[in-house]
């Protein structure tokens, strides 16, 4: 299996990855694979996915994002989706996908700020979720 | 049958052509006497309208256009009739009065026909044909009147959509949408889009949706609000719902709508206070401290 095309940067205990304008099925699967390995290897406490450039999303890609969040949580890291464009947000809501268990932030900067605060009940799988 | 109809048509054309002036004059007298259009349409204008109508009718009669659906098929006659309807409608003449005016033109033509056509059978055929043409014309005035109204309603609807969803910036990182009027799915969609666009542009951390001006909340409206809140959360912002009046709160409770996921405040002021606290929490401590040091 070839490595993911999406570069993953390591900033201390945070892993940062910037997604392109499209997330096709193959790239998404490879990326989830690579990311889980890196989280386990580096013992990262958080993953920030910069999706500012992403302007198209489908249900498969959305599911992969939720899977990434679940998997990272199992490995002890929080996942923040940063900078979602409004058309993507509308698409997700219309598809009925609220991305449960995923933290969101306006930008990478906000994401890092949010990560510096303790975990809120909303992100915990047992707590209330974004619907 | 066809021959008779053709003869009747030619007869109308002959009589109307020969006595245009009399028809126009009789019609104007009828209009000025009639209460419906009296005062609304000036004498000059009446004459002009009558002459246009009569000459277009003549043109249609002498053209090769078949008698069936003459009004709809003859372009000049059609535009003359719809033009009259639009113009009169604009100055406040009712649809009935416009149709009646067209009928009274038929009466003037029929009166002349009665005097000028000695052959009884031909007169009968011609009058029948005349009736049919003017019935169509009157129906057309009515239709174009309704169309005109419909267009105005559509335009106002669009304008209402445009003006009714302003997104205002209340504080650094705080946006508000004051909603006024009933929320249908079309409006809710536009509100959601403009709010999300605003969040993206201003990097706003908190969005306040104020529903003080929304008269009722049903399950559909609540659904739209929940969707908007879910979308703002996906973008990384938080949403506060404010301006829930007691009746609305009762209605929400009675309908069993679950808004527990949404932060709610009773007034916009309370919502703004909450929003400012939330925005402040997001800033690093040093920044907040250094700023408060500047304000004595």
From TrEMBL, chain A:
Domain STAS: residue ranges: 4-115
Protein name: RsbT antagonist protein RsbS
PANTHER family linked: RSBT ANTAGONIST PROTEIN RSBS, RSBT ANTAGONIST PROTEIN RSBS-RELATED
InterPro entries in the record: Bact_StressResp_Reg (IPR051932), STAS_dom (IPR002645), STAS_dom_sf (IPR036513)
Domain of life, source organism: Bacteria
Organism: Thermocatellispora tengchongensis
Automatic annotation (TrEMBL), chain B:
Domain STAS intervals: 164-275
SUPFAM superfamilies (UniProt xref): SpoIIaa-like (SSF52091)
Transmembrane segments annotated in the record for this chain: none
Keyword hit for RNA-binding: no
One Pfam family in the UniProt entry: STAS
Keyword presence, Disulfide bond: no
Gene3D superfamilies registered for this protein in UniProt: STAS domain
Keywords: Phosphoprotein
InterPro entries assigned to the protein according to its UniProt record, in alphabetical order: Bact_StressResp_Reg, RsbRD_N_dom, STAS_dom, STAS_dom_sf
Protein name: RsbT co-antagonist protein RsbR
Organism: Thermocatellispora tengchongensis
């Amino acid at each position: 299996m070839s490595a993911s095309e999406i570069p993953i940067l390591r900033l201390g205990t945070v892993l940062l990855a910037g997604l392109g304008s499209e997330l096709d099925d193959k790239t998404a699967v490879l990326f989830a694979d690579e990311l889980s390995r890196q989280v386990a290897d580096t013992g990262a406490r958080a993953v920030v996915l910069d999706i500012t450039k992403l302007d198209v999303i489908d249900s498969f890609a959305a599911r992969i994002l939720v899977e990434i969040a679940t998997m990272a949580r199992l490995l002890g890291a929080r996942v923040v989706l940063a900078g979602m464009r409004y058309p993507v947000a509308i698409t997700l809501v219309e598809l009925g996908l609220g991305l449960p268990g995923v933290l969101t932030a306006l930008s990478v900067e906000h994401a890092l700020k949010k990560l510096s605060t303790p975990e809120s009940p909303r992100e915990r799988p047992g707590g209330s979720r974004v619907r | 049958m066809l021959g008779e109809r053709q003869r009747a048509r030619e007869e109308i054309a002959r009589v109307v052509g020969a006595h245009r002036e009399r028809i126009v004059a009789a019609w104007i007298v009828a209009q000025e006497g009639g209460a419906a259009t009296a005062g609304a349409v000036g004498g000059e204008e009446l004459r002009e309208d009558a002459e246009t109508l009569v000459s277009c009718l003549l043109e249609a009669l002498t053209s090769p256009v078949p008698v069936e659906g003459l009004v709809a098929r003859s372009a000049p006659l059609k535009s003359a009739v719809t033009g009259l309807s639009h113009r009169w409608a604009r100055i406040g003449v009712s649809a009935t009065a416009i149709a009646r005016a067209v009928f009274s033109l038929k009466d003037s033509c029929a009166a002349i026909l009665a005097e000028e056509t000695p052959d009884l059978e031909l007169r009968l055929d011609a009058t029948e044909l005349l009736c049919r043409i003017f019935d169509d014309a009157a129906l057309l005035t009515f239709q174009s009147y309704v169309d005109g109204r419909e267009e105005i309603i559509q335009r106002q609807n669009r304008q209402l959509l445009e003006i009714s969803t302003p997104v205002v910036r209340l504080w650094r990182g705080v946006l508000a949408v004051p909603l006024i009027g009933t929320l249908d799915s079309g409006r809710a969609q536009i509100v959601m889009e403009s709010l999300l666009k605003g969040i993206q542009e201003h990097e706003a951390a908190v969005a306040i949706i104020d529903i003080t001006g929304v008269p009722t909340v049903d399950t559909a409206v609540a659904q739209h609000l929940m969707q908007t809140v879910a979308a703002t959360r996906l973008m990384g912002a938080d949403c506060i719902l404010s301006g829930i009046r007691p009746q609305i709160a009762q209605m929400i409770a009675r309908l069993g709508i679950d808004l527990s996921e949404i932060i709610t405040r009773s007034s916009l002021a309370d919502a703004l206070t909450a929003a400012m606290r939330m925005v402040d929490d997001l800033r690093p401590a040093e920044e907040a401290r250094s700023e408060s040091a500047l304000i004595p």
